[in-house]
Amino acid sequence: MTDKPALYRDLARQLEALIAGEPDRIANAANLAALVYHGLPDLNWAGFYFAQDGELVLGPFQGRPACVRIAWGAGVCGAAAARGTSVLVPDVHIFAGHIACDPASRSELVVPLIEAGRVAGVLDLDSPLLARFDADDEAGCAALVRLFVEHHARYSAALSS
Hints:
Layout: H1 4-19, H2 25-39, E1 45-52, E2 55-63, E3 69-71, H3 75-83, E4 87-89, E5 107-115, E6 118-127, H4 135-160
Antiparallel strand pairs: 1-2, 1-6, 2-3, 4-5, 5-6
Helix pairs in contact: 1-2, 1-4
């Protein structure tokens, strides 16, 4: 990939078109997972885990079947949720406590969904390639997550007024 920032700008435009006018969070998460999975090369999983009762619960995704529940703080997803910041792991086999849902995964990027100052879930990307993700991927995925979160915040505010 030669111009990742341009690729992520294009994905952001596509996401805006996909979620425009749609208030359903699950439907929009499903479309975002599919957009990322098919729009980025070298992924073997892309999807969401949502915060529920002190743990992360599987949401819409693309890829092989996945772990359904992840404890807060466990694995890469749980670490990102507990820290409230993105976690980029070049080699999951050297990440202490990595949860191997798919043994083919070698690198991972997890971006938290921050809603009203708290972690509402995470976007999780896995790749079968070592060091697949970099700072451009982290920034690009963070921008996509912000679009997703801001869209739903606007709908929530409109519904409550």
